[in-house]
Specification:
Layout: H1 5-29, H2 41-58, H3 62-71, H4 73-80
Helix pairs in contact: 3-4
Length: about 80
C-alpha cells in the first residue's frame, strides 16, 4: 500500500506535534537537554512528566504558571498540596 501525499503529511505533522507539545515543553520549561545527570536520568524524566502534567492541569500556558511560581513559590506548593490552600 502506497501513501498518498496527504497521508504522508499527516504522519509527518503528527510526529512534530508530539515534539512541540512534550519535548519542547520539557526543554524550555524544565531544561532537560541542559541537564548533565546520567545516573537516575530516567527517574528525572518520569518526574518531569508528572510536573508537566500538574502544571498543564492548572493552565494551558506553562510559561504563565512558571512565572507565577517564580514570583510566589507558595503557589507551586499549593499545586502539589491543594490542602495548603
Amino acid at each position: 500500500m502506497l501513501l498518498t501525499a496527504r497521508q504522508a503529511e499527516d504522519i509527518w505533522r503528527g510526529h512534530w506535534g508530539i515534539e512541540n507539545r512534550s519535548h519542547h515543553a520539557r526543554d524550555t520549561v524544565l531544561h532537560e537537554d541542559r541537564c548533565r545527570m546520567r545516573r537516575g536520568a530516567q527517574g528525572r524524566a518520569a518526574l518531569n512528566g508528572v510536573v508537566l502534567g500538574i502544571l498543564l492541569n492548572h493552565s494551558r500556558s506553562l510559561t504563565a504558571v512558571v512565572r507565577q511560581i517564580r514570583v510566589k513559590p507558595i503557589f507551586g506548593l499549593r499545586l502539589l498540596l491543594p490542602e495548603l490552600g
